[in-house]
Specification:
This protein has 14 helices and 16 strands. It is an alpha/beta fold. It has two domains: 6-130 and 370-375, Enolase-like, N-terminal domain (Enolase-like, domain 1); 134-367, Enolase-like C-terminal domain (TIM Barrel, Alpha-Beta Barrel). The strands form four sheets. Strands 8, 9, 10, 11, 12, 13, 14, 15 and 16 form a nine-stranded mixed sheet that branches. Strands 1-6-7 form a three-stranded antiparallel sheet. β11, α8 and β12 form a beta-alpha-beta unit. It starts with 5 loop residues before the first strand and ends with a helix.
């Protein structure tokens, strides 16, 4: 029925200052941090696959791989994609994975593969005039969503943190995530206590250490101190590679442990899942291998009765969450950058803690070319 070919692969890199919350709502006065580092800019690279009949598939990547490195990696993979039929998604994925064996199995290589794979699925959905979540086999058409942010500043600003999460709830969110892990146990507990007191008992609160704790003992001490605040989950207490330490924490505390945002492919998730290191699996389609690999990881998690909470990439994650039975909740970044507010012609809308899936084909998003021109890296 369709006989399409990919004729071009393009990348566009954008960057914008991180945004925060103050009495005047938004500002960009100082760097933001997670458990391990501070940053003042959030890069984003858009990959576009062009077919011979003019259909353009979109894939995004926003995970701090330096844009020149990411663009060069996509340019290398371009040679494996040009001339292929975009409907042969599995074949293209396998071809990229096998032919980059000596380049690496993590980082920029898998990230670039992910972006291309997402764009392939967007093309298929557009060609069939079907939203991605229905193309994958829909489970629902609305998904719960949480607001993510609450970064550290260069001082422990608990007052503004409480104001920030309160604003999210007023904007329609019923779950929030914020950072701990950089200032010490006492300050971590202070941050969680302030958020719980500001939001009351009915809002879900999630804490994210970004691998900031040096060892399982310290992370367990923090988790036990936080149990009284009804934390929905404790994310990345240790660096990604310490899976045995993560499993030790999970067995010792009464807060669900989540991780996986910077795990790569099903092989990385296999160890995380089989070793029972997490209660919640967090694959990121923009990192783990795209839509194709995310689905494999979610199926593996289902075999162990584990829920999946897709990390970042809301425009993709909402479709993936709506297409699997073991999805928990989707991540969104309401106050992170002004760029995300303007990138799509129709921004993703949150209402009463849910996202309604778009009816448009593919990812259902259209890029705002004026915003791209404004934030494009020269």
């Amino acid at each position: 029925m369709f006989n399409l070919k990919i004729v071009d692969v393009k990348t566009t890199s954008l960057s914008c200052e991180m945004k925060g919350y103050s009495d005047n709502r938004y500002f960009a006065a100082e760097p933001f941090g997670g458990g391990r580092r501070y940053l003042s800019q959030r890069p984003l690279t858009i990959t576009q696959l062009v077919t011979d009949d003019g259909i353009i598939g979109i894939g995004t990547h926003a995970h701090c791989v330096p844009p020149p490195l990411f663009e060069a990696t996509v340019e290398t993979l371009k040679n494996f994609v040009i001339g292929e039929d975009p409907f042969y998604v599995e074949r293209i994925w396998d071809k990229m994975f096998r032919l980059t064996f000596r380049f690496g199995r993590r980082g920029a290589v898998i990230g670039a593969m992910s972006s291309i794979d997402i764009a392939l699925w967007d093309i298929v959905g557009k060609a069939l005039n079907t939203p991605l979540y229905k193309l994958l086999g829909a489970y629902c058409d609305m998904v719960p969503v949480y607001a993510s942010g609450g970064y550290f500043r260069e001082h422990n600003d608990v007052k503004n943190l409480a104001r920030e999460v309160t604003d999210w709830v007023e904007r329609g969110y019923t779950a929030v995530k914020f950072k701990i892990g950089a200032l010490g146990i006492e300050q971590d507990v202070e941050r969680v206590k302030a958020v719980r007191e500001a939001l009351g008992p009915d809002i879900k609160i999630i804490v994210d250490a970004n691998g900031g704790y040096p060892n399982p003992f310290t992370a367990m001490k923090v988790a036990r101190a936080l149990e009284r605040y009804d934390v929905y989950w404790f994310e990345e207490p240790l660096q990604t590679d310490d899976i045995e330490g993560l499993a030790e924490i999970r067995r010792a505390v009464n807060i669900p442990i989540a991780s996986g945002e910077i795990q790569f492919t099903r092989y990385g998730f296999k160890e995380l899942i089989v070793k029972r290191a997490v209660d919640i699996v967090e694959p990121d389609a923009g990192i783990c291998g795209g839509v194709t690999e995310f689905r494999r990881i979610a199926a593996m998690a289902a075999a162990y009765d584990l829920p999946v909470a897709p990390h970042r990439s809301t425009e993709v994650s909402m479709h993936l969450a709506a297409s699997i039975p073991n999805s928990l909740i989707v991540e969104s970044f309401p106050l992170e950058t002004e760029m995300w507010d303007k990138l799509f012609l129709e921004p993703i809308e949150v209402k009463n803690g849910y996202i309604k899936l778009p009816r448009k084909p593919g990812l259902g998003i259209e890029l705002n070319e004026k915003a791209i021109a404004k934030y494009e890296i020269p």
